Amino acid sequence: VQLQESGPGLVKPSQTLSLTCTVSGDSLTTNILSWNWIRQPPGKGLEWMGAITLSGSTYYNSSLKSRTSISKDTSKNQFTLQLSSLTPEDTAMYYCSNGLRYWGQGTRVTVSS
Hints:
Blueprint: E1 2-6, E2 10-11, E3 17-24, E4 35-40, E5 47-52, E6 58-60, E7 68-73, E8 78-83, E9 92-98, E10 102-103, E11 107-111
Parallel strand pairs: 2-11
Antiparallel strand pairs: 1-3, 3-8, 4-5, 4-9, 5-6, 7-8, 9-10, 9-11
């Protein structure tokens, strides 16, 4: 399974971040592992943000739940992350992952005015 994140590298505070993970080598309609978003702020550890399952159920980190939404587009074999009410503390490398087994290379997001 190969995963590739895409999205804006720079966003302003209070805006909503939208990232897309494009999957190849397998299908969102058959792969039984969850599709996850994880981030790593500069100098800090990994933080699991949430996931969407084969059935479409979603699970979120409780600390981010009010600002996070994960969805999928099976026709494009993609899943997306939306994170609202951004602050500079959301600056991080953002990764998508299949079952925490396969990972994308990550995309850097900076929140700054």
